[in-house]
Amino acid sequence: MKLNEEQLSFLKNLIEPARIQIRDEIGEDYSHDELGGVYGYPDVLIKVVSTGEISQIMTYAYEQDIPVVVRGAGTGLVGAAVAVRGGIMLETTLMNHILELDEENLTVTVESGVLLMELAQFAEEHQFLYPPDPGEKSATIGGNISTNAGGMRAVKYGVTRDYVRGLTVVLPNGRVERFGGKIVKNSSGYSLKDLMIGSEGTLGIITEAILKLVPLPDKSVSLLVPYKKMEDAIGTVPEIIKLKTTPTAIEFMEREVLLFAEEFLGKKFPDTKSSAYLLLTFDGNSASQVEGEYEKVARYCLEHGAEDVFIVDTPERKDSVWSARGAFLEAIKASTSEMDECDVVVPRNRVADFIHFTHDLSRKHDIRIPSFGHAGDGNLHIYICRDELKENLWKQKLTEVFAEMYEMAMRLGGAVSGEHGVGYAKKKYLEDQLGEVQIEIMRGIKKVFDPKGLLNPEKVI
User: Fold this and answer.
1) What per-residue confidence (pLDDT) applies to 316?
2) Locate the FAD-binding PCMH-type domain: which residues (predicted)?
3) Which option is the CATH number for 219-329: 2.70.150.10, 3.40.1000.70, 3.40.50.2000, 3.30.70.2190?
């Protein structure tokens, strides 16, 4: 939709000039998200500063039938924050204030534009932990909530949904509602708060969040465990879980990806001689508790195929290992001309089957498919790399590989997204997974919240 001059004039009078851009003034970065592949420019970009301001804009947009898309830091990977139908884009990065730390209720209240790394640092400075730990630390909390982001600590602590106590939301018609609060239990009707989490900006605009914190663990140690084969590494994971230990994270990685990260960061990883690795972390409030857990796991790994176990317990080693793990996405991206991502989740005892399947796919289609992911919760990040392929062949192979991977994920009892969402790019695969009845229920929910279909149109369903 193209806004007319009267509509543009209204918005210009509502917002101070430094925070509004019109058409050609809008930079190329705002036409796509982090991965690219889905493009579209808004007619107007507004850097919003408050719930009240968003309410005013949405009231007008609803009256005028103007589509609206909300964008945080733009780090998404499925085109969810792209203005595919033009209209208004609201950027929330100026709503970046931590509003309250409630140490008695173990909650922190933040605006939606606060970055994950800012919240994590704030919590740690006050001896608390905000457990959700997605790989992209520069994402906004609003974006994390909108996609129900997971991350590496999900195996022990859970995902973003498990830490959202309350939300302030602007509805598509401009009304402001507060869902949930600081209470721990709530069995009072449908959980509208939980409907908002993971809805990718299609039901309402999250402006503030009350988040649960936990006390900061005193001790944290990681283990880096090399294996000759990926199947051996991942096959160990269900058995590790059955040892009655509680690892904070269980990551898997292949040698190829480690080498990309070394080159990308310009620093050496502790070991790159093996084909596959598990990276486990343990935390707790006493050294004896943490040592007891990681020693039991280390002993089991060595007795069941591990080539070695490296203890990562110094700041230097932790930086070497975890900086490499954090750079995997950017390192793979730097190794190719273009890429797309498959963010599937399968039962954790089927992870090895799925990774083996991607190796077969790579050979079958003669295309590079590196991967890494969260072995502890079955969430896999698979990347299809274009390299030197011509445009037509790249699009053909991408379509074929995606179709086969999502079909296999569903066959193994999995789902099309573990933490990055559906957005615009993965809608077809969601329909294949859920079927007509569930998609119609979701459309019904969308219609109740957004009867005109103005908020983040053409996303998810």
Assistant:
1) 86
2) 38-216
3) 3.30.70.2190
